[in-house]
Amino acid sequence: MRATNRDDIQRILDARHHDPFSLLGSHVEQEQRVVRAYLPYAAQAWLDDLDEPMEKVHDRGIFEWRGPLDALPEHYRLRWDDGHGQEHIDYDPYSFGPVVSDFDIHLFNEGRHWHAYRFLGAHAHEVNGIEGVRFAVWAPSAERVSVVGDFNRWDGRCHTMRVRGGSGVWEFFLPGLEPGALYKYEIRNRDTGVTQVKTDPYGQRFELRPQTAAVVHDPEPFPWSDEAWLQQRAGDAWLHRPMSIYEVHLGSWRLGSDGEFLNYRELARSLVPYVKEMGFTHIELLPITEHPFDGSWGYQTTGYYAPTSRFGSPDDFRDFVNHCHEQGIGVLLDWAPGHFPKDAHALARFDGSALYEHEDPRMGEHRDWGTLIFNYGRNEVRNFLVSSAMYWVEEFHIDGLRVDAVASMLYLNYSREEGEWVPNKFGGQENLDAIEFLRDLNSSVQGNHPGALIMAEESTSWPQVTRPTWLGGLGFSLKWNMGWMNDTLEYIKKDPIHRHYHHDQLTFGLLYAFTENFVLPFSHDEVVHGKRSLLYRMPGDEWQRFANLRLLYTLMWSYPGKKLLFMGCEYGQGNEWDDARELEWYLLQFPFHSGVKQLVADLNALYAREGALHHFDFEWQGFEWIDCHDAAQSVLSFIRKGEEKNDFILTALNFTPAPREGYRIGVPAPGRYREIFNSDSHFYGGSNLGNLEVEAEDLPWMGRPYSVVLTLPPLAGILLKPIST
After folding, report:
1. Phi-psi region of 528 (alpha: psi -120 to 50; beta: other; left: phi over 0)
2. 34-69, pLDDT tens digit by residue?
3. Residue 480: φ, ψ to 5°
4. Mean pLDDT, residues 493-503
């Protein structure tokens, strides 16, 4: 054996060879065909095609065969026994050439491969009629990468991968392996020699936690039946349509009889009828991307391409989405590209270097959350994230993503003191790389999938979040209106006797209401961490708490913007949300709670039916104050307008427990007005004070040519519509 071969063999034995294909497999040496295999568990080995034995040239499992150049086919089989009576036969994986195209790698390194999940990760594959699994992973700081699993006793010496030049991409074709196999990558860092076992960043299915291995996914196509929904979505003028979103944590909406999680399919059959009954148009799921810790609610993601196995398989989740679409319900997914956890099995220091994150903790760590920040300036990292977004829209027919914690991405000094952050190249606080990533994300997803929505949870006054990238905006479809939410909840929690001092908290939001495409959110964040439930943030006795909650929802549904409500809030859950327990469904036996539920269902129906309440959610033409100045009586009144001149709805809201008899407001047209909604109705648990119909008087008021006299019920809102003009 030549000295060169001896050195290569030693590196193979030590599992530190960066190019095992240069030694293993079939080669021409001195005008002979040489087949060399590393079989550490073999007592004997043969070339099965020739039924000829291989010589054991090293006692730690190196076998060789030498013969004529044309004696073997391109892909030959090895047969070996393990000394315990078990015989193994399969094609030699080192007889196969590269299985990832140069073009795919080029696009990936350029950061322009929006479907990187199609070549990275583990995929069932066929080469010259031979079936197996193709593995590919990005690990540029690795000296050696091996795929490990049950199929090789989790031994990183057995299946060392091929590196593709300086791309950092390692690949391997393992013949005979089938979908369902468990696998990870064993990675040796070239600088430190430290070896780690990591799960697949592009894994499309994982074991049930606390286990962390990836699972080779089944390539069988899912029988989708939602073509009509997707066609409608692509041509839908969603800005002018009603959108009312029910935010759900699947692990606590409903549980099984023994407290176990329900399967995606079971959840769909119980959740969808409820959502339809309540009149919501969309379901938004807290992240179901794979995550190790239940208490993170999915926001500390380790599997950006995998629905969590807590609730079933990827096809089970496809069935969930398909069923929603068949029933006319959209599905939105919370998605967290702003940070990722430090779990040793996942992305953190993936190849022994700061690969997905920054090396400098001033840029690479969220101290508030104990997580790491993606390095958005790295092409392959941006590609990983954008490709993930495309994956959910394309492979699972998701209707949109809600991007978590956008503010933390945009600002380099987010939640940091002076000296704890690094300015950008212009000396500013803006994260220029994150801005570029977000624009790439929005332009690629929405450009390729018209009608798919990308929402931003952005809590600052960053300009043009929902304006097109070609106008200098970030390109999001929608933005959560955190300012409106905070101001409104801060106001409504106050005792009514003090509210007239804080009237501006109700009116300030209209100064910026049409600068973005806003969603009005009462989300999970508002009912956790000691904030209490929405119901118990309301002041007063029991009757007043429920009346205030009904009033809050009436304001929300009549105010410009799409709607979002977290599960349990729709019937006034009493306790703060607990992710480890099922919602308090038993409360619906009590009239006040069932009344709130009926109110939300009726508001959703009214919002969907009346174009004036949704057509101009994002445009100033759809809103007009009647009176925003009546702080003394804590009353607001305004008009919502539709496309036609006479399509409008009057809203009047009384934020005190004192009924307002003979309250006059100006109206734009003569005729009769019918009360079409009253949150004080006895159907909802109210005192049933209000108006059936009122006649406009020829008396100018509040700058309008006509006026009506109303009875405003206590802690309630009413909506009126002209029935003749």
Report:
1. beta
2. 999 999 999 999 999 999 999 999 999 999 999 998
3. -65, 130
4. 96
CA distance to 46, 90, 246, 581, 594, per residue, from 249 (Å): 55, 45, 10, 11, 21
The upper half-sphere exposure of residue 56, i.e. CA atoms within 13 Å in the direction of its Cβ, equals 13
- Catalytic residue at 661? no
Separation of alpha carbons 274 and 2, rounded Å = 74
| Diameter over CA atoms, the chain | 109
Model confidence at 2: pLDDT above 80: no
Q: Tokens for 34? A: 């040489």
| pTM score, whole prediction | 0.95
Is 247 catalytic? The answer is: no
Same domain, 48 and 106: no
User: What pLDDT sits at residue 1?
Assistant: 45
Strand bridging mode 562-566 / 518-522: parallel
Which residue, 216, 249, 280, sits at the end of a domain? 216
Same domain, 69 and 164: no
Asked if the structure places residue 657 within a domain, the reply is yes
Catalytic option among 457, 617, 627, 680:
457
Lateral strand order in the sheet of 162-163:
121-127, 130-138, 169-175, 162-163
Residue of 171, 200, 351, 404 marked active site: 404
User: What would the pLDDT profile of 695-725 be if each residue is shown by its tens digit?
Assistant: 999 999 998 999 999 999 999 999 999 996 5
Here the CATH number for the domain that contains residue 139 is: 2.60.40.10
Say what the pLDDT of residue 30 is: 86
Q: Using alpha carbons, select from 506, 586, 515, 585 the residue that is nearest to residue 552.
A: 506
Q: Which domain holds residue 168?
A: 102-216
Domain assignment present for residue 368? The answer is no
Tracing tokens 């092409």 back to the chain, one arrives at 379
- The residues near 664 (Cβ < 8 Å, ≥ 6 apart) are 701, 707, 708, 709, 710
Residues 373-412 have pLDDT tens digits of 999 999 999 999 999 999 999 999 999 999 999 999 999 9
Q: Please say whether the beta carbons of 569 and 252 come within 8 A.
A: no
So what's the pLDDT on residue 645? 85
> Do 569 and 532 meet the contact criterion of CB atoms below 8 Å apart?
no
The reply to whether 555 falls in a domain is: yes
Separation CA 622–CA 651 (nearest Å): 13
**pLDDT mean over 282-309:** 96
How does the average pLDDT of the chain come out, rounded? Answer: 95
Please indicate, yes or no, whether residues 107 and 8 belong to a single structural domain of this protein: no
- pLDDT at 366 (0 to 100): 87
Residue 674 resides in a domain: yes
Using an 8 Å Cβ cutoff, are 76 and 95 in contact?
A: yes
- Does residue 129 share a domain with residue 13? no
Domain boundary among 187, 216, 245: 216
Is 680 within 8 Å of 686 (Cβ atoms)?
yes
CATH of the domain at 679: 2.60.40.1180
Q: Is the pLDDT of residue 3 over 70?
A: no
Instruction: Tell me: do 128 and 76 sit in the same domain.
Output: no
What DSSP element (H or E) covers 45?
Answer: strand 44-47
Per-residue pLDDT at 84 exceeds 90? no
Taking each helix axis as running N to C, give the angle between helix 542-558 and helix 591-609, from 0 to 180 degrees, rounded to the nearest 10: 10
Domain count, the chain: 3
- pLDDT of the residue at 724: 64
